[in-house]
Amino acid sequence: MDIVTVTLNLSSTLKKLGMKAVKAQLDLSQTAFEDCNKYCKVDTGKLQSSGKVDKVTGIMTWTAPYARNAYYTGAPNKTKNPLASLMWAHKAAEVNREKWRGIVVDSLK
What we know:
The structure is a single chain. By secondary structure, the chain is mainly alpha-helical. The protein has one domain (about 25-105). The chain is about 55% helix and about 5% strand. It is elongated and about 80 Å long. The two termini are about 35 Å apart.
């Protein structure tokens, strides 16, 4: 009887998968941020330009002092940005969900 032994280098496999996951997160974060900013309120442009995505964690933030209030309340002025929406990140997720999913799938290949 012949015996076949298969050895799996699990730590190497997990390391490669982890690196792909990090790349997927960063690719997704950058694209998601750009998509979210398309729906951001624009009056003077300070709110939209205060947005950034952390290149390490992928966390998106808008740091204008009134950003939280602008995200949840008021009526977006559509004169300067016809796509402006309350809760612009939620709106972008609703519109781009499949595109974002594709970015992750492609990055993990």
